[in-house]
Amino acid sequence: MDPTAPADDRRRRRVLIALIAAGLVLALLVSVGIYGLLRGPAPRTEPAPTGTAAPTITAPPTGTSPAGPAPVSQLGGPETFARQVAQALFGWDTTNGYGPADYAQVIVDVAAGEEADVLAGDVRAYLPGAEAWAQLRQHQTRQWLSIQEMFVPEAWETATSQAAPGQIPEGAVAYTIEGTRHRDGTWGTEPVEASRPIVFTVFIVCAPVVTNRGITGTHCELLRLSQLDNPLR
């Protein structure tokens, strides 16, 4: 966001992106910018990566010593990155000694710098609070996500077509994700499980990775999350 912009303009932009994340008032893009999407990251100059992006996990963790929250790879392209964000957002295990703040941190770690504080609030809305986590831990609860569909919503395409030049940075995109949230655990001595459909939208921005061999891939950052079950369509 331009630090020289008037304070009133900056406030309007913050209100607008909140409305867009809730799927509202896209026509306002004609006259004001989109908070959080006003500029993307500059192309990165760094050594070429030697590893590959971590695979998408769509099954619960196994074994007697489940791993903690895994870092989200920012390589592999926008769709791969959005999938990994979704899996990190819904994948947690109360039995491994980690808490909701630990699972939130791996997502905030891939935030676009200017969005980190407000994104942290988005992430907290998806995770159990400390009291709920303590109750879930008593039942050895685990959660994971299976993704059924992922697409760029029509509302996003409308927003980009209405935006003035420069309002939305090159490489910014929204993905709406439809899937099933799964949980399992114990009730007394009996194993229990539950699932329900969910849908939400992630807003990301990607830029080329530039090395001495030229452009070798893309590096992505997370801008915002919609409210759960209130996505862009």
Topology:
Blueprint: H1 7-21, E1 44-45, H2 78-90, E2 92-93, H3 100-108, H4 116-124, H5 130-138, E3 142-151, H6 154-162, E4 172-187, E5 190-211, E6 214-225
Parallel strand pairs: 1-5
Antiparallel strand pairs: 2-3, 3-4, 4-5, 5-6
List keywords for this structure.
27% helix, alpha+beta, globular, 233 residues
Task: Explain this structure.
The chain has 233 residues and is an alpha+beta fold. It has one domain (39-59, 67-225). Helix content is 27%, strand content 27%. The chain contains six helices and six strands, in the order αβαβαααβαβββ. Strands 1, 2, 3, 4, 5 and 6 form a six-stranded mixed β-sheet that branches. Helix 3 packs antiparallel against helix 4. The model is unreliable at 22-59 and 61-65 (pLDDT under 50). Residues 45-71 have a biased composition (Low complexity). Keywords: Membrane, Transmembrane, Transmembrane helix.
Span between termini: 26 Å
**How large a portion of the residues is in β-strands, by DSSP E?**
25-35%
Query: Low-confidence spans: pLDDT under 50, at least 5 residues?
Result: 22-59, 61-65
From N to C, what is the helix and strand string?
A: HEHEHHHEHEEE
The helix tally amounts to: 6
Please identify the structural class as seen in this structure.
Answer: alpha+beta
Q: Domain count, please report it.
A: 1
